[in-house]
Description:
Blueprint: H1 8-24, E1 36-38, E2 42-47, E3 50-55, E4 65-70, E5 78-79, E6 83-86, E7 95-100, E8 119-120, E9 124-130, E10 144-149, E11 154-155, E12 160-162, E13 175-177, E14 181-193, E15 202-209, E16 218-219, E17 224-227, E18 239-242, H2 254-264, E19 267-270, H3 281-286, E20 290-293, E21 300-301, E22 319-322, H4 328-333, E23 342-349, E24 354-366, E25 370-373, E26 376-379, E27 386-398, E28 404-411, E29 414-419, E30 425-427, E31 430-435, E32 442-443, E33 447-453, E34 458-464, E35 470-472, E36 477-481, E37 505-507, H5 515-518, H6 521-525, E38 534-536, H7 545-548
Parallel strand pairs: 19-31, 23-36
Antiparallel strand pairs: 1-2, 2-7, 3-4, 4-6, 5-7, 8-13, 9-10, 10-12, 11-13, 14-15, 14-18, 15-17, 16-18, 19-35, 20-21, 20-22, 23-24, 24-27, 25-26, 25-34, 27-28, 28-29, 30-31, 31-32, 33-34, 37-38
InterPro entries: Vps62
Protein name: Vacuolar protein sorting-associated protein 62
Organism: Gossypium laxum
Amino acid sequence: MWSSTLSRVEANKIKRVKTFSIQAGSSIGQGFALGKINLGELEAVKVSRFKFIWSSNTQDEKKGVTFYKPIGIPDGFYSLGYYCQSNDQPFRGFVLVAREIPSKSESTHISTGIALPALREPVDYTLVWSSNDGSEERLQGCGFFWLPQPPEGYKSIGYLVTCSPKKPKLDKVRCVRADLTERCENYQAILDVGTRFSEFPFQVWSTRPSHRGMLGRGVSVWTFSCNSCWVPGQELPIACLKNLDPTLHAMPNCDQIHALINHYGPTVFFHPDEIYMPSSVSWFFENGALLFRKGDSVGQSIDVDGSNLPSGGRNDGEFWIDLPSGDRKNSVKSGNLGSAKLYVHVKPALGGTFTDIAMWIFCPFNGPATLKVGVMNYSLSKIGQHVGDWEHFTLRICNFTGELWSIYFSQHSGGVWVNAYDLEYIQGNKAIVYSSKNGHATFPHPGTYIQGSGKLGLGIRNDVARSNFFVDSSTRYELVAAEYLGDGVVSEPGWLQFMRKWGPTIVYDVRILPSVLRYSMANIFIKLPVELYGEEGPTGPKEKNNWVGDERG
């Protein structure tokens, strides 16, 4: 069973850790899970009470979209735009509302020299779209979408929806000074009204900051974008907020991080027929993993903490790690579940209004793939296997409340975000993560997932199921990085700085495929994960794009 809020015990933990943070003299953690976040000149609050305004008409009510006006806004705060969501999802949404914080660093208008407030009313509204066909007799039940027109030097953050062709009052929303905003982009389509249903096509999208990751300062307001003729790549007429607070005080401190992992840490289940288990990195090194250098056929043993690995630089092909030779090779390939742990990287997300807890797991070996073609399955004896397999999943925590918002499941060359209400739970608020047989990609539910081309009926099988092989990340983990806490707060292990491959590179010849599959494989391979082109050990976590950037999805 999933709960959207922290228990009383966990809430008390947060408060105790907050007291520790204040005594330690650091601002980080003082604003975590307090319901409001200081963004510099603006303070933002999460509002989740809404009034129904309009719903799109479809034959299936569950496929419709409903638009809401935020209500219960605290005194002194202002709406920045309305909210919408699909009718087939649990009602769990929110929008941010904002108030101005008095500041000595107010911007000054170039021509007048007068300080500009952070928030101002729009000067007008533009009607973007209406479900009305132009008939005054059929206004009842229609929706009208309005874009606030901002004063010079300001940006609109969201749209308003009404049931009348009359323009909304100007005081119903606020625009934000441009330097307090960041560019945003369309993310996921929510509604698509084609010409079959309306004279004018119309689309509604969720939005997200264009610049994301742990260095991004854009803050999602959770309003929506809408238009009749949007072109991919085109700049939107609305923006998101920007966090100008250099301290990121709403991020959790070190003790709060541990409390969150203890409370939310998922249990990772491996397939009952899994042969290639995870292990700790230190076990891998202790049991004979070798460091090779280009041009040298003899490998060097690796210290248990990886301190003798070349650090920094880039993946230039000069070094790589490989399995030991001889009798120990197969035993090391099998891993050691008893030593396995999750390696944790904590970083800001969406301008420090969320926390991403990326959990990395290491497997000494990635097994061969199984190719599905129609109703047939072909075991690929070598294709897909490689030494050194790094996989991960990421918990996204809301810094306004401390609740688990979603989990990202990494799946070979991509991945998917899954909302907390769509997860499986094993105990309290601890979700289940399923690791696929041989390949160790992560999934939210048991079953068989096909990665490839549905149109061709071809793809790689990812089989996941619950078993007696599991790792509880809430207790078996190691915090390896949290850069925002400052230098020296988290001691990074030496192996984390190794930027080269954790396995050798072998390019496959298509002739090792089953004969029935060799014909036109050049075209088929385009649809398959890149891992199938050859055996190539992955780089470590710090060399991945999502270490600094956002997840792919």
